[in-house]
Write a structure and sequence with these properties.
16 helices
């Protein structure tokens, strides 16, 4: 006597990794860096993350309804949340609330859904959003806080909320007293006035290798990135080549002219290089698919970042470098396809 067993359609084995699972692990890997960011620069970054996530989910819901897509399926993939968090981590902690609104409008609506949604976008949505607000509102995006250990005046949580939502500091404070140039800004300003890098590094905003506080944040981003490598969420090709190209070219510049070029570790542990190497440039949708292509892509992002930092108009060129290489990724993949077996 035969027995009948319930069977399902192929494939019979569930996938080892899902989009939502990958995105949640990326968010988990960002937690150490976020905790360090909050420790050194106050709770403003947490508010920026919350605002960006709320606006991102709102625009995601709106566009899914317009495109008549399954809300539960696409809202549950966590991709909009990852975009929002990466964008927020690039903002000054006291940026006004409407910066997150405008950024998520460009990230979710223009850079993602107008290209066809998840998996169809040409450019990294978080970097599109950041570049838009950076170019459009340079004064607001330059109001960075010094580490809490150097801050003469620190804001409470209530004062931070008031500043973000009203755009005005408490009456006893001014932007000149609480804001300060980033380490990359300080080096650029010093070189523009004829000073040497060694003189610029006498500023208290610098730590042992990079910016005070920023070097620890970069270390914790790297810790999260190494965890993603161990979990095989990302491959080593892009981070290795991005950081390696910056260190290699930075070393050449430093040996050739140490007065105008900082030590390579200054580039690595200042700005968004580590965040970009492990969490932004490794985006599988907007990067390269082939192994050789990833190596070229990572090296290109690193080289362009160094070029923009040295000769460009902005102190940190990671976002611009990523977007430029996003444009080149399809062409790189075309010429780095692996040879078909048998040919």
């Amino acid at each position: 006597m035969s027995r009948k067993f319930a069977t399902g359609g192929a494939p019979h084995f569930p996938p080892h990794a899902t989009i939502s699972g990958v995105m949640r692990q990326v968010l988990l890997a960002l937690v150490p860096g976020i905790v360090a960011y909050t420790w050194f620069f106050g709770p403003g970054i947490l508010i920026q993350i919350l605002l960006a996530v709320i606006f991102a989910l709102g625009f995601e819901t709106l566009m899914l309804k317009v495109r008549k897509q399954d809300l539960r399926l696409f809202l549950g993939d966590w991709s909009a949340v990852v975009t929002a968090v990466l964008f927020a981590l690039c903002l000054p902690p006291l940026a006004p609330w409407w910066i997150a609104l405008i950024g998520m409008l460009f990230a979710i609506v223009l850079a993602k859904h107008l290209y066809g949604g998840l998996g169809q976008n040409l450019f990294n949505p978080a970097m599109v959003a950041y570049v838009v607000v950076l170019i459009s509102f340079p004064q607001v995006m330059a109001l960075w806080l010094p580490p809490t250990s150097l801050a003469g005046q620190s804001l409470s949580l209530g004062e931070t909320l008031t500043t973000i939502f009203s755009g005005h500091l408490p009456a006893h404070l001014s932007w000149d007293t609480i804001s300060e140039a980033t380490p990359l800004d300080a080096i650029r300003a010093s070189l523009a006035t004829g000073q040497m890098v060694s003189e610029a590094r006498m500023s208290p905003v610098f730590g042992n290798f990079g910016g005070l506080g920023w070097e620890w944040i970069a270390n914790f981003y790297a810790l999260g990135g190494l965890w993603l490598l161990w979990r095989r969420i990302i491959s080593w090709h892009v981070p290795f080549m991005m950081i390696g190209s910056v260190v290699g070219l930075g070393l050449v510049g430093y040996l050739a002219d140490p007065g105008s070029n900082p030590v390579p570790l200054q580039h690595v542990f200042s700005g968004a290089l580590i965040l970009g190497a492990f969490f932004i440039a490794t985006d599988p949708v907007t990067g390269c698919a082939s192994t050789r292509g990833r190596l070229i892509f990572g090296a290109g992002v690193g080289i362009l970042t160094l070029v923009i930092r040295r000769w460009g108009a902005y102190p940190d060129g990671v976002a611009f470098a990523v977007l430029l290489m996003n444009m080149a990724a399809p062409l790189i993949d075309r010429y780095t396809r692996p040879r078909i077996f048998g040919q």
